[in-house]
Amino acid sequence: MALPKSEPPDRRYFTVEEANRALPLVRAIVADIVRQWQVVSDLEQRLTPVLDRRRTTRPDDDPYDAELESRRTELAAEQANFRRYLHELEALGVELKGAHNGLCDFPSLKDGREVYLCWKLGESEVSHWHELHSGFSGRQPIESDEPSPAGHSA
Description:
single chain, 5-stranded antiparallel beta sheet, alpha+beta, 2 helices, elongated
């Protein structure tokens, strides 16, 4: 399932401390997102092949029309729930990078440039950062003896 892209008009920058203070709420929302992503993905995987077959071989009077419409309605409702959770996270200023694994980025500043503080569901705290385009593979630990992102010490 593709994640909707929306850039908030006023970008919020987090310090490490602010990101960690926000974690209890972020953790709860992200757990809901991961759970909901699985529900939507499972429904899409079950429904897509049926819809694809029906486009090419649909009989005039299909006894399963009502059941199929019910599943489509269920999928739409579950997708709406997913989007609602995603908007809750975005409203906090946190960017979801992986709905399947709960990977999130907190925008921050380091030495005057934009970076991301990186956190993944299951981690106890925000303890890594990466450049905007390096992603999870470019994660680096936040060193306690250097200035932390957003210009505050850790």
